[in-house]
Amino acid sequence: MKSKIAFGLCTAGLGMAAIGMMGLSSEGQAFVWEFVITAVGWAVAGAGIALNKLKERGTLDKYTL
Question: pTM score > 0.85 for this model?
Fold first, then answer.
């Protein structure tokens, strides 16, 4: 179940970052909001990757001495 959640987080984060990056050519306050959306998207994607790494570590620990 954790891998499905991690995949969902990565997908949502990368989609959010892509939408945020589309507006980075704008000016003024719109640029700030698009930068924030991009940063949050990358953070969500990173959380998904971290969750996947924790899942892999738990699976690996089960089969090692």
Answer: no
Euclidean distance between CA atoms 41 and 10, whole angstroms? 9
Distance CA 37, CA 43 (A): 10
Largest CA distance in the chain: 57
Which of 46, 42, 1 has the alpha carbon at shortest distance from 19? 42
Per-residue pLDDT of the chain (65 residues; tens, 9 = 90+): 667 888 888 888 898 888 888 877 778 888 888 888 889 999 999 888 888 888 777 665 666 66
36: enclosing H helix or E strand: helix 29-62
